[in-house]
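Predict the 3D structure for this chain.
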Amino acid sequence: PMAGGKAKGRCRPPASQEGLRALTAGEENESRKMAKEIERKFLVNKEILIPLLTSGSYERRVLRQYYLHSEKNVAVRLRQDGDDVILAIKAGGDGMTTNEFEFTVDPSSYVERSDERVGIEINKTRHLVPHAGRIFEVDVYADELEGLIVAELECPDTATVTDLPEWIGDEVTYDSRYKNAVLAVKGMPSPDMASEGIYSGRR
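Done. Predicted structure below.
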């Protein structure tokens, strides 16, 4: 899409409670997890990072995902990660912390529910890059979001981490334009994009 424009995609009403119950019902859903997600998010210095990713032997995974619901305080996501399909419900939070509920669902759900998608499907390759005893998840986006690279650090003490790799750029933890649920609906962030929804009073 054009920079700052709204990403193409089908807009549907919010996912119904009945639909979510159907997704999470049955034996496939035995591996469910509730957690408080604590993460920081950064842009990167591509001149340093891209050669590192192409020359290194880092673990990587191809992820496909889309949203059934996307609002400021609640997002419902389906993600395909290898042979697994995970339903995630994210709610509340202040930008760094989010309440997250995850359910393993039937793999066929990813295709069957695609007509309920809000916004675009996000395709990205996640690279796991170690630094100073921690793992940075570096997401290299493709298709409509090609050119965007975001690094995330998720750990209990992430708020106090100061030893960052040299390829880390500006921190965007509290900038909601870089949340995946917002990227799916509004597309690639740009300097002139309206700042509505950006968390205020923090960094």
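The radius of gyration is 17 Å.
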